[in-house]
Amino acid sequence: MEVLKQELKENIIEQLNLEDITVEDIADNDVLFGDGLGLDSIDALELIVMLDKNYGIKLTDPKEGRAIFGSIEVMAKYITEHRTK
Amino acid sequence: MSKVYINGIGSISSQKTFGNNDFLEKILVYTNNVIPVVNPDYKEYIDPVAARRMAKGIKMGVVASRIALRDAGLENVDAIITGTGMGCVRDSEKFVSAIIDNDEKYLTPTSFIQSTHNTVGGQIALGLQCKGYNFTYVHASISFESTLLDAKLQLENDEANTILIGGVDEQGEHTIAIHKLINHIKLEKIETTKLLGSNTAGTIFGEGANFFVVSNKKQDSTYAEVLAVETYNTLLETEVLNTVILFLKDNNISVENIDAIVLGNNGDIQYDMFYNKLSSGLFKDTQQVYYKHLCGEFNTASSFGIWLASKILKTQKLPEAIKINKKSKENYRTILLYNQYRGENHSLTLLRKC
């Protein structure tokens, strides 16, 4: 799980071009959207594609993303339970 | 009909031009055939949250436009008109590559959203909250002149009082590779200052953003008056001379009145002959200026020529690095600019000191 969390932080920083943010800046329980990391709806779409491409998880209902993308901790738990690759 | 003035300028080029203080006192010489811009600190101008989705071309355009606005002492304008040949080519390449690499699956939205040609104009407007006329011209090497022509018509007819215009193009890795393959970029490496003496086909490629605040009101910061601009999609080598003569006649200006001619020579032996028709003939006794050894060739490189001419007219200085010939001249009052790329999309522009 720790390896997956690290991987998720690296991928989020790279895919969302979070230039001034390092892996160390993102705590496992930090809120990713809104006041937390400041991600927005376009970032949510990027993350949905990332889940599909990297872990074989298809989110058909974007509303699901709201809960799944709550924090790195929540994302890692969801991926571990649902990944197909 | 109102007159049209250039009241503010902003340039991001392969020279350190973004500061707007120096005028090519020290030039950067490159030995690569693809030269990048000297980047300002974009974070000084753009909020990092907004900047993270911006490719280089957008950042260059937004920052050059801010510099021009500041130079003109303005917070906002009535309209924004952008010229670009290739638009946001990096994001276009990224998106198309993703389609191919991922077998048309897993397409992410950001590069698609940012890949359109009018993204730069849109981002400038968003930053300024400018809800006025916003237009982007995409027409190869007359993209920038098209913005100038549009702005000139609006200002002359008092449809707007201040307009931000600019030319912007960024380099894309794949696009550059194609231009190398088809020999539009020189095969041999050449020192940029020796570009005109290369005697080979192709040129050096650059990128950049040059923005201007144009207005129908003259002010202290004014650089020049825009007397005329004309574009020609096709023009034979044999037609150039007569076209220039006619252009000058239409504007009641004689060859003797031209204090300097700014030429778009790019060292391509196949196409510099268009310029040679003028430099070795009608304008052989006129001070000739070139600039593509400083900024490289790109679709809106001629906007750097306008930046250069504006600076000459305001400062009355003509840096050694841009002289093709050496004619003693005490003051520069009227400048003619001529540009074309690979024998197509020609433009003539006339600027006058205020």
UniProtKB/TrEMBL annotation, chain A:
SUPFAM superfamilies recorded: ACP-like (SSF47336)
Domain Carrier positions: 2-83
Pfam families the record matches: PP-binding (PF00550)
Organism, scientific name: Aquimarina muelleri
InterPro entries per the UniProt record, alphabetical: ACP-like_sf, PP-bd_ACP
Protein's UniProt name: Acyl carrier protein
Highest taxon in the source lineage: Bacteria
Automatic annotation (TrEMBL), chain B:
Xref: Pfam families: ketoacyl-synt
One record GO biological process: fatty acid biosynthetic process
Recorded GO MF terms: 3-oxoacyl-[acyl-carrier-protein] synthase activity
Keywords recorded for this protein, A-Z: Transferase
Cellular compartments per GO CC: cytosol
SUPFAM superfamilies xref list: Thiolase-like
Residue span, Beta-ketoacyl synthase-like N-terminal domain: 46-218
Entries under InterPro entries matching the protein: Beta-ketoacyl_synthase, Ketoacyl_synth_N, Thiolase-like
Protein name from the UniProt record: 3-oxoacyl-ACP synthase
